[in-house]
Structures are given as structure tokens and as C-alpha cells.
Amino acid sequence: MGGTIGIIVDISLNSLVLSGVFLIVAIGLNIIYGLSRIMNMGHGALYAVGAYTGYTLVATGFNYFVALVIAPIIVGGIGLLIERTIIAPMRKRSMVYTLILTYGLMFFLDGMIKYVWGNKPCFIDLPAFMQGTLSILGTQYPIFRLVTLFLIAGIMGGLMLFLNKTKVGLILRASSTIPEMVSCLGINMSYVHMGAFVLGCIMAAMAGIIAGPLTTIDPLMGSEMLISSFVVIVIGGLGSLRGAVLAALLIGFVQTLAEFFITDLAMVIVYVLMAVILAFMPRGILGEGKFE
Amino acid sequence: MNNTTTIPGIKKRFVPLKIFIVVLVFVGLGLFPFMSGNRFYISMINEMMIYGLLAMSLDVLLGYTGALSFMHNAYLGISAYVVGLFLIHISPASLWMACFAGIIFTSIVALPVGWVQVRTGGLAFALLTLAFGMMFHTIVWKWYDVTGGDDGLMGMPNPDITLFGWKLGSTGDPLAMYLFTLVIAAICFFLTRRIINSPFGAVLEAIRENEDRASFIGINVRRYKLLGWMLACLLAGISGALFILYKGYIGPSTMSAFAGAGVLMMVLLGGLGSLWGAFVGAAIFIYIQDYISTMTEHWEIFLGLVVIFLVLFLPTGFVGLGDHLKRFRKG
Fewer beta carbons under 10 A from the terminal one: N or C of chain B? Predict the structure, then answer.
């Protein structure tokens, strides 16, 4: 074994992968919140739906990378349906009601997952070339985790290009700062909210199918991820993208370290960290948060 | 001096008809076990009253202060564990000491949590309650040596319910426990009602309506929010003590997020901002739960659908149903 250096390489790569998954889920939540001031409690369940859809696609014979494209489209469609039927009518109501509504949505989706796929854990079969290990500084590291890192970087890069270089991205960015002005320019805000929600769902599903091979897929994965991504966006500041990146790196690192040294109570450390940061920096580590 | 200033927002307190109905319900519930010998209904109403107390404590927080707590059952759980551990390890017979220890410990835990939470806005407050609730759940679940982990706390003794030498019976006796719960729940209800109808309650409602304006007129918003939070946690602690005495057992599933959603749903079913509505909501919820869980294991789907339906179409709950009917009659 690689000894101390091997452990360091292992921990840092693992925490990067974990941070990446947190980041993609949290940015989806952040986009929805930043554009329509709705905190989607069902986001974790949509992430789990993405992972399960990916599992079914791979199990029926699709290539892993094909599933990575198809599953988010399916979940995006589910998101569109949810947005039009229950989220859109709640636009004008108080925030407490939307929180409770999406909380109900979470239980509905979790129940549906258990109904369709059952309670037992599932595993995504990887393509042959991703199953081996690669030697990095004397430690054997699984190749698929490295591929995952590249995928996360690709998704984040694609999202940044979409938000910064396209016209739709421009509209989304403008709507998150001055929605009234965008609306005055003749852009239908209802479509912007819809687009934000669907984009968030697509991000959640992508994260789900990427995280699938890393962990086992079970019905609890959604609520665990929901809590973690809340921690990330609360620490990073609600609606702040740069803050979310920093917070995801921080939480991924802290959680990997805590899981390595004290296995059982790892999450308690993360919650305490969040409480301390919120008590002294209520707008997140960069001070960019938009709390209502 | 006779300076009776009327504070807006406080309803007229003395209404003979209302008091008559409340006394009638109380006496009716008190006589119920003597008229019907059915053990099943006695223990079901007992559970309804305990959860009603918990739902009422959440209603103080959500309906009056406007702060959402996703996992209020965590405080029921903490209190129940402490009462159980006290009875098992320290003194198996001292009921009042155990309850006192449970409620005090719950308050001690809730104080720093509340201190952090009131420093944030409405949304972050709600998310923090979820995070802290999950934290308590994880601790109880993983700390096997003390809490018994997944198996829960077992081997509870059944102390006698005594007050000033007058003995009501053992907590293992459903009838004695029922009457004990009824009296405690009634006392808590009237005390909370009194607190909510005082100027303190009016301040809480002012904060709910507009936090900025409340602070402009000189109200220390954080302090009052913390007081509201502590009141809610204290009541949850009392319901937790009753819970473990009634069940004789507590496991981590009582403190899960799923159970927390159930409490939230009781408050929604009953209607926000009226303390008695929470009891009605708890009664409806527990009755439906008993009914549906015998038919299907996919109870989560129904819970989710009912919550969505309630928020979309009946946000005022059972309490608001009367207003709907009135409007319907007037055309």
C-alpha cells in the first residue's frame, strides 16, 4: 500500500468527487431558489429518481453514457409536469406553504420510488474500461472515480458556458437579479420559472446517475443528499453560485475526513459546522446570500 | 387606576358559549373511559391527546410566530429518552422528578439551537430545524450504548402517578394514564392559551405579520422569537414525557423526518393559528393513519398526496372549514 501519501491522495480525490456531486445537486437547488424563490424540498427525491432511472436504463442494456443523457431528460419531463401542476399555482403564496408543499412532494416521490423499485439497494453496472484501477503516487485508485471527476468538471463547465454565453443564460441571470425589469422587457416570467425548475431537475438527475456507481442506490439516498445540499447552499449563501462551489469543496472535504476518522457521527460534525457558520456569517461564507 | 387599554389583535376572551363547549369536551373525554370499556379506543384517544399537545406546540411556533420547524418531534424524542433513561438508571419510582428532568434537559438542548436559529431568516430557520433534527436523530440512532440504537429504549419501569400522597394508579394502567394525559394536556392547553392571548402573544403575531415593522416599533425580534421557540420546545418536552410513560418504549423512528412531516400535517389538517385546531388535526391524522396503515404499506404516497392537496386547496385546515361554510351559505 502507499502508506501516508496513499491515504492523502485517496482522501483528497474522494473528497473532490463527493464535493462535485454535492455541487451539482446544490447548484440545481440554487438556480431554482435564485430565480423563483422556491426552496424545493423534493430535490433530493428527484436526485434519487435520476439514479434509479439510470439504473433501469443500464440494466435494460443501454450504455452508461447514453443513460447519462436519457435519464436527465426523463426527470426533466417529470419536473415539467410537477412545476405546471403544483408549483406554478403556489407562486403568490407565502414561502412557508411552498416549503410544506414540496415537503409533501418529497414524501410522494420517495413513496413512489419504494413502490416502483422496492426497498432493496441497487447497483449500476459500469462499462468494462471503467472497472479497473489506476496507480497514482503508489495508491490504486478506481478509474471510474476519475472519470466521474471529468464528468463533473464537464457538466459544470457546460453550465457556466450556458449561463454566461447564451441568450437564455443571459435572461436567467438577469431574472435572478431584477425580475421586474426582465418582465418589463417582454419576457414571460412564467416560462423563466418553468425553465429554472426543469434545469434544476436535470442537474439533480445528472448528479444522481453520476453518484449511482459511487454509492449504493437506495430509497434513503434522496433525503441524505437533500440535507447535504441544504448544508452546502446555506453555508455558501442562498442563491450564490460562487459560494456554493466553495461550500461544496469544504463540506466534501470535512465529510470525507470525518467519515475516515469517526465513521458513525460524521454528519454531526457537518451540522455543527453549518450551525457555527450560520451563527456568525448568516449570509454565507462569501456574504452573497439572498435570504427572504 | 383603571387603564384598560385594548391591544388590537387580541380577541375578546370571555365568551360563555366557547367556554361551555370546552368544558363539555373536557368532561366528555374524562367520562369516556368509564362509559366505554373498549381498550383500543382509550389508548387511541390517549395517543391523539399526546400528539395533539405536540401539534399545539408546533402551532405556537408556526401559527403565531410564523417560524417553520420541520422536525418538532425531535424535541418530543429528546424528552422521552431522558425521562426513560432517568426512570431506568436513576430512580424507577420518581415520576415527577423524571418528567422534570426530561423537560429541563429538552430546554437546555433547545436553547443553543434556538439561539442559532433566530439569527437567521425564515427560510434558513426552517432548513436549520431540519438539519438539527436530523442531527439528533443520527445521535440517537448511532449511540447504541445509551439509547439502544435501532432497538430503542426498552425495559421501562411503570411508576405510580401520585400527587401529594393521593394515588391515581400505575402508568402501565391505561385508564390511569388516560386521565393523567387528559389533565396534563388540558392544563397545558389553558396555560398556552393564556400566554398566547397575553400581550406576549400579540407580539409574536406582529413578528409573524411583518418582522421589519415589529423591530421598527421597538420589539426585540430575536428575543421574542427565541421565547416563542422555547415555549414550543417546552410543550414538546411535556408531550415527550407523556409519550414514553404511555408507550413504555421509544425508538429512533419517532424522531425521524417522516414522523416530523406527520406532526406538520396534523397542524395543517387542524388549521394554523388556533390552538384547539392542532388537537383536532392530531385526532384526524391518527385515526386515518390507523385506518390506512392496515390497508397498504405505501403510506408515504398518501401522506405526500394529502399534504399537497391540503396546501393547494385547504390551507386553512379544519378551523377554516367553518368560514368556508359560512361564505357558501351566504352565497
Answer: N
